[in-house]
Amino acid sequence: MSRKQARRRKPKIAKQMKIPTIRIGRIVAPLVAIGIVFATYELTLTLLDRAISSIEISGPFQRVSALQIEEAISEEIDEGFVGADLDRIQERIVALPWIDQARVARRWPSRISITVTEQVPAAIWGESGLLNTRGELFVAEARHTPAELPRLSGPDNRSAEVATRYLAVRDQLIPVGLDLRRVKLDARGSWKMTLNNGIEVRLGRRSVAERTDLFLNIVTDIIAGHAKEIDYVDMRYGNGFTIGWNGGPNTPVTDPKPAGQKMLVARGTD
Q1: Facing residues of 182 across strands?
Q2: What is the rounded CA–CA span in Å between residue 171 and residue 57?
Q3: How confident is the model at residue 258 (pLDDT cuts 50, 70, 90)?
Q4: What's the farthest any 2 CA atoms get from each other in the chain?
Q5: Residue 230: how many CA atoms within 13 Å on its side-chain side?
Q6: Between the CA of residue 245 and those of 6, 66, 200, 268, what are the distances in Å?
Q7: How far apart are CA 155 and CA 145, in angstroms?
Q8: Which residues contact 208 (CB under 8 A, 6 or more apart)?
Q9: Beta bridge partners of 193
Q10: Confidence of residue 83 (pLDDT cuts 50, 70, 90)
Q11: Interatomic CA distance for residues 205 and 94, integer angstroms
Q12: How big, in percent rounded to 5, are the helix, strand and coil portions of the chain?
């Protein structure tokens, strides 16, 4: 028999994984560069940060003094020219009563510039609160309330709504020689206005916008010619309004088109 020779198996050669070599210099160099930049930055801030030499404050100063502003930001100013936080300085100034806006800036080499704008009171809210031109309550209890300001009242969380209605109605009354002195929104949601000639306008709770438009478009023409004779105008009807005359009977009007004509009283009020 022929003998088969066993084939010798070739020994396996273990594969070696090549680990990529990274030069340490490529890692260290950027880190060193970053460190140098950071150190330079910190050193620059240290050299530049100096005591604030002066504070320049500009504004109308009718209700707030420059001394009050300086006292309010004294702690922040102590941090130095660079260390002072301008946002916190602004917040402290705006937190003062009667301050509406403030701008704060650094002026090289060591001066802080502050420009303030005071609140402009547009109306008295409640007994002694003050609203600005945006309808925001900025003083809850003022020591002095200017007598010439209109008086608005209502729930505190609806002050902006009352102010908005006041401004919208007033803008349309001025051209016809009338003005608005009081706007009241009671707890039930009922609206009432008082004109500068003392005439009371009752708008009620429902369809206030529509009733206001009816008053402005129709009733103001009647008032313009009989202001001294009219006591109140009641708009709280579904299809008309009533004019209350001084020392005389009421005049219900159910059809606004023939304004001034006496007609039957309109259906129920709210």
Answers
A1: 151, 194
A2: 36
A3: very low
A4: 149
A5: 24
A6: 133, 54, 11, 20
A7: 20
A8: 191
A9: 183, 201
A10: confident
A11: 37
A12: 35, 25, 45
For the chain, the structural domain boundaries read 54-118, 123-253
Res. 162 pLDDT band, cuts 50 70 90: very high
| Rounded (10°) CA dihedral 260, 261, 267, 270 | 10
Pick from 193, 192, 190: nearest CA to 205 = 190
Tokens for 192? 């009432």
Q: Name the class of domain 54-118.
A: alpha beta
Which of the following CATH numbers is that of domain 123-253: 3.40.50.11690, 1.10.10.410, 3.30.460.80, 3.40.50.300? Answer: 3.40.50.11690
For residue 102, give both structure tokens: 């403030």
Can you spell out the DSSP letters for 119-182? ----EEETTTEEE-TTS-EEESS-S---TTS-EEES-GGGHHHHHHHHHHHHHHHGGGT--EEE
Which residues are registered as beta bridge partners of 101? 117
Buried-state track 221-241, b at ≥16 Cβ within 10 A, e below 16: ebbeeeeeebebbbbbbeebb
Q: Is 248 exposed, middle or buried (0-12, 13-18, 19+ CB in 10 A)?
A: exposed
